[in-house]
Design brief:
2 copies of one chain form a homodimer. Chain A contains 5 helices and 3 strands; from the N terminus they run H-H-E-H-H-E-E-H. Chain A has 103 residues and is an alpha+beta fold. Chain A has a 3-stranded antiparallel β-sheet with strand order 1-3-2. The structure holds a DNA duplex (30 and 30 nucleotides).
DNA sequence: CCAACCGGTTTGCAGCGCAAACCAAGTTTA
DNA sequence: TAAACTTGGTTTGCGCTGCAAACCGGTTGG
């Protein structure tokens, strides 16, 4: 539970901790919103993989998924929610403490 | 594979990324060496859990396990290897970059 | 002796990430 | 107009993993 003289080890959010999802969240955090194809290209994830990660993030309430049509072709846009932004910030702080403890 | 304007997303070492093992490594990194009971108390992990994590870390070559006897009772000491220390440092740098990209 | 404890390891199972298969709808080829 | 291909995803299946519980060989206490 703790690293000697460095306080307790934080209970990291596993939904965020997973690298694929951390990547998605980091991107959404920096660009505001993104569509499926953009995320595919930036992350290098497979479509199936991206789909399941975004579903899980949406289930956790960390992102919102908006489906629409551009002309006749479907378009899905992903965006961080307030709670997602907060959770990400918390994760960042916790992980920052852990790393600092490893100087 | 990349966060816009922030370079590629690093391929994080999953052996280290797992919180339980990260905790073990962080402790060994800060105290030099530790025995089984000390790690139990510091990490809060169950014995079985600690045993399997240390086995996995040893399989990866990141720690060494030294079994001996203190009087008649067994004693197992865990210690970071050079390669473990290097891998941990690399993980720290990579994760630091990711966090920095999330400012 | 026999029970309880110490110091671990092995086992079993549930959950997860990943890739591949699938699907629906539109577009191109012929 | 029908076959083949692309786009934009979702679902399925499997192998691995983390976790808790069961186990096990000593050792100490009554």
């Amino acid at each position: 539970m703790s690293i000697p003289e460095l306080g307790p080890f934080p209970d990291l959010d596993r939904v965020i901790h997973e690298p694929g999802r951390l990547m998605i969240l980091a991107i959404l955090n920096s660009v505001g919103e993104a569509d499926f194809l953009f995320l595919i290209r930036q992350t290098g994830l497979s479509r199936g993989n991206l789909s399941s990660h975004t579903t899980k993030l949406a289930d956790a309430g960390y992102i919102e998924i908006e489906k629409s049509f551009n002309e006749r072709t479907p378009r899905t846009v992903y965006r961080l929610t307030a709670s997602g932004r907060a959770a990400l910030q918390k994760y960042r702080d916790q992980m920052g403490d852990v790393l600092a403890a490893m100087g």
